[in-house]
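Hey, can you fold this one?
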Amino acid sequence: MFLSNIKLSLRRLAIESSLKGFLKLAQDNKTAMLEERMKTQLQKPAWLKIRPPTTQKFETVLETLKANKLHTVCEEAHCPNLSECWSSGTATFMVLGDTCTRGCRFCNVRKGRAGIPIDPEEPANLAKAVKEWGLTYVVITSVDRDDLPDQGANHFAQCIRELRKNNVLVEVLIPDFRGNDSLLKIIVDSKPNVIAHNIETIERLQKYARDFRANYWQSIKLLKKVKEFDPMIFTKTSIMLGLGEKEEEVMVALKDLTSNSVDVVTFGQYLRPSIMHLPVTEYVTPEKFEEYNESARKLGFLYVAGGPFIRSSYKAGELFMEGILKKGIESPTALRVDALKLPIDLKIENNANPSDPSAENPSNQSAENSNLSENSNQTNPKQV
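Sure. Predicted structure:
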């Protein structure tokens, strides 16, 4: 018995030692892989540098958000324009909590199987914050909430209705609702002025970049369905560049969007949030962005914005939409007919030297592209 116990103890020690060795080896391999990834990371070019915030307005925005228990996608997604937008008193609000049930491999928003409980006071708090800031154009987005029976559609719609009571223009960046048209209808019926939903990247890279529950044609179908429900609503999407897409694939995506009633498109540089996210394969130059902008304009989009720091809810887009809506142009069809007659100045002042890597607003060199499509007075025959 004594010898048997000794053998058993020695065997356990051998197993534990082997297991520790295995775990150490695994950890060493993981560390080596991370170090190798860091070595192979592309170096950011000069135009992708931005200064931190310094204005009092920034602090006011932060204090208001905390006081009203509100979230912004600016913070959660580590948006490079956070300092610029907050310092000018604007932000993109994120409703339905700060935890997303999707696992997209480019996104830095917190992930989980279930989000936090919905705050019933959020719609009222959101409207209060907007009123305090004196905003006339508001952008709202949300995390995906696959854990909820309605995926958060009713709460999202209530936030829109509360804002509309204050007579503000509302743009929403919505989830795909897994292709459920009845949930999309809830959003449409709350009457936002603009409904955005991002296809994120070209068709080939969808499985590589997005959660398995999302896909290219599901997203495009959602944007087209918005028009079928209400042709008075402007539709918008955004494409990240620098994930390995080819120029011809971007052009195919743009043609797919215009043939499915999408009014507005934006392009931005993908920036890797951390070493655990998808790597950047290319830093697209401002000149290349302008080529894509020009191609999109020729295809007939009502509005195009593209540049290294441009994001779906970047303020250049807000200026455009606010401008046309305040001019009384309430439908995309009317804008297509009268676009070139609109006395709207969409240029953004930019006194910074584009070649200066320390320029505070490097994204403004792309914001100058915020103009009407050259062919925006021509109705796309494939559109609803």
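The CA atoms of residues 319 and 346 lie 7 Å apart. Let me know if you want another pass with a different chain boundary.
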